[in-house]
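Bumping with the actual sequence this time:
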Amino acid sequence: MQICRAEDGQVFQINTTLYDIAKKPSTLRTLLAECTSVDPGSMIMFLSDGQQLREDNIRELSDAQDQTIFVFNRDYLDLEVDEVMSVLGVREGDGLLPSGSLQEDSISSLRTSQVLQDQFQRSQQHQSYISALFQQIHSQHDALLIASANLDMHILTLSDAWMALRESISSNLETQAKLLDGIDYDLDTISQLSVHPSFLAVASAKSNAAPTTPIKEREGDGGIKAKTLGEYVSRVKMKLVVDSCRKMHVDLKNRYRQAQTSMDDLIKGSDEIRASIHNNGSLSDASLCTKRSMDDVERMGS
């Protein structure tokens, strides 16, 4: 079984299978940590087909045809690329030139055949390094494809949820705006609505002033004064409530716009990542360079 450390494309061979690990799922992270040196608590594991691997589903996935496990380090997700490169100790040009090149005085003391043989061996070492580096780049690219597909899946789920929520939020904001725009009209209307006498009678009875004569008679005598609904609603207090509601409405609209902008940026960023990964230009160039170095070394040896 192969274990690929996604951060640098390094591949490790181990003499076991997913089926063997599935017998003791708790050993999965420990085993992978021994190979990759990635902290068990920071691991995110995937199979080559993009399915996420966990202790609770390894039995279901143990019969996968491709037994390669890609191990991602969660700790790097919140870091900038430069910081990750620094942590990994990667420097531009590392390993591209064979070490220990012959000095001029050393060359003069050796026979031509010895010099050529030495340089040929160095070329072989360099070509081996180039081939190994290409394999790591290829493995990293495979890991990026898996990560991008997983990102797309989560964004699609989030986008579907947001679309459903957005319709509800937009509708509620429109309703709030209409209510706030019509508040002056509503207050004017309330001030003109008469309260039915029967409600006034009930209110009078509850205040221990129960009527002893029919309502109509007492109205004629001036017993119960007609009132409007506006007399029970303070216009000043309602204005304060409305002002508070307007501020809250503006805040909700701003949050809604920010959420929509964040969602748009997330989708756009995912599209850009996918496009850059599926553009195989760099990988193709690396493949051509590797093949050219192999051909050069073969010609030198012939």
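The tokens above came from a reply further down the thread. Strands lie at 2-5, 10-13, 43-47, 52-53, 69-73.
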